[in-house]
Amino acid sequence: MKLPNLFTDPSRLRTFKVGDTIFKAGDPGNEMFIVDEGEVDIVINGTVVETVGPEHFFGELALIDEAPRSADAVARTDCKLAALDQRQFTFLVDEIPFFALRVMKVLADRLRRADRASK
Q: Quick one: which of 58, 75, 92, 103 could link to 20 by a disulfide (CB 3.0–4.6 Å)?
């Protein structure tokens, strides 16, 4: 997912160094992230379940269900991330149908992978 110009403003980008924790399981989820540069590991119970790279996103589940984070997110490499809060997320879902479809596809893919892994 190419970052919309709205979120590539340098003041909106956050930088993390390799090994930095972006969030931990149980933290409140008030934003999601789109990777501009680098890679982020999504970790559940000490196991990397996914590595998210440029133009992909993570952390959206907490904005959808307003529950605490279900995983840790750790910078696998130095990275730049665009953070989207609830208001920005809702705007994109309302105004850009492709964004909403992309979020649903990613959630479906993750659910299918988790289902296969549990068998």
A: 75
